[in-house]
């Protein structure tokens, strides 16, 4: 059974992921190894209030700023420290950026669950909201229209 060390993230995968998938509230992507869940993440669409965005992120953007939301990201304890979280994050950003080319989105937003998670996202270039430090954003690279 999946055990990330955070019961809330574990329960969400079991209790909410499928319901959200069917209801189109979010999309959950799972990595398996030998039929065992190694890790997962969930993406949804959303908006970030202009007042909560870092200055560079909000430049020339509407209110709210359209973003992809990385709603969950977790790795089973047996696989932590092996780069799985980094791979999941890279894949999430790639998928969100591909979706942005179709529907329009300025970047990806995450609400860090704790200080350790916040540090993880900062390491990969995410910037904290000045109003809500546990809310972080990463702008997508500009693409041609």
UniProtKB/TrEMBL annotation:
**InterPro entries on file:** Acyl_CoA_acyltransferase, GNAT_dom
Q: What keywords are annotated for this sequence in UniProt?
A: Acyltransferase, Repressor, Toxin-antitoxin system, Transferase
N-acetyltransferase domain mapped to chain residues: 1-145
Instruction: Please list the GO terms describing molecular function.
Output: acyltransferase activity, transferring groups other than amino-acyl groups
Q: Which residues constitute the signal peptide according to the record?
A: none
Q: Which reaction does it catalyse?
A: glycyl-tRNA(Gly) + acetyl-CoA = N-acetylglycyl-tRNA(Gly) + CoA + H(+)
Q: What is this protein called?
A: GNAT family N-acetyltransferase
The scientific name of the source species is Devosia nanyangense
């Amino acid at each position: 059974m999946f055990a990330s060390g955070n019961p809330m993230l574990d329960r969400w995968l079991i209790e909410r992921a499928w319901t959200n998938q069917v209801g189109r509230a979010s999309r959950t992507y799972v990595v398996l190894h030998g039929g065992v869940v190694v890790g997962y993440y969930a993406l949804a669409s959303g908006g970030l209030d202009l007042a909560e965005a870092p200055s560079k992120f909000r430049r020339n953007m509407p209110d709210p700023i359209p973003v992809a939301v990385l709603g969950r990201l977790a790795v089973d304890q047996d696989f932590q420290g092996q780069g799985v979280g980094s791979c999941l994050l890279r894949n999430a950003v790639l998928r969100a950026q591909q979706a942005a080319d179709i529907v329009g989105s300025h970047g990806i937003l995450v609400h860090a669950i704790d200080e350790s998670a916040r540090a993880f996202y900062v390491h990969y270039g995410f910037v904290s909201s000045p109003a809500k430090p546990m809310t972080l954003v990463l702008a997508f690279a500009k693409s041609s229209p």
